Amino acid sequence: MNPQASVAALAAGVVSYAASAGVVLTAVEVGPDVVISGGGTLDFSAWVQYTNSDSAAIAPEAVIVGDQGPTFTNNGYQISSGVSGPPAFTTGPVVFADSAAGDIFGILPQLGGSAADAIAPNGYVSGDPLAGSATFLSQSFATLGLNPGTYTFTWPTASGGSDFFSLVVPSPGAGAVFVVLGVTLRRRR
Fold first, then answer.
1. pLDDT digit string, tens, across residues 106-157
2. How many CB atoms are located within 10 Å of the residue 183 CB?
3. SS3 labels along the chain
4. Tens-place pLDDT, residues 69-110
5. Rounded distance, CA 90 to CA 146, Å?
């Protein structure tokens, strides 16, 4: 596939994710660091809400971005069945972000089961836009245990539809395309 076709296919994939409900996060290596950022909307209508306290991190069983703010609390949501997805995000250890910005949100699937927990900002209303990032200084995909691929979790909504949460880890060298594409899409809005 030629480079122009690759960029066009990538753009079509990102735009199709952005056009439907759900969240897409993209991991990129930026110099000696890894940045995970993205956004979207989530539908928690079929989930049970509780108060929680989490920080931006990545682990085999979780990916969380954003800043929890001065209260260090956020809304937690739990769903007891219907979640499907890969067995894990990473093969590495739990690593907390060195910095985070934007809304705090993430998903913590219960490995080996169909249940999950999710994180969203205090006062989050299903369908509101989310955007956040987490920066891991002096880390690489290798040290975080991230392998190229798209890791997508889906679950049913109360209206009978479905929602998703995806983490995209591009092949080495492809990260710059995501950064340029993200800037281009943001400027068009």
1. 887 665 556 677 878 877 888 899 999 999 999 999 999 998 999 998 888 8
2. 10
3. CCHHHHHHHHHHHHHHHHHCCEEEEEEEEECCEEEEEEEEECCCCCCEEEEECCCCEEECCEEEECCCCCCCCEEEEEECCCCECCCCCCCCCCEECCEEEECCEEEEECCCCCCEEEEECCCCCCCCEEEEEEEECCCCHHHHCCCCEEEEEEEECCCCCEEEEEEEECCCCCHHHHHHHHHHHHHHC
4. 655 556 666 666 677 888 778 888 889 999 999 988 888 766
5. 5
Interatomic CA distance for residues 127 and 109, integer angstroms: 21
Would you say how long the chain is, in residues?
189
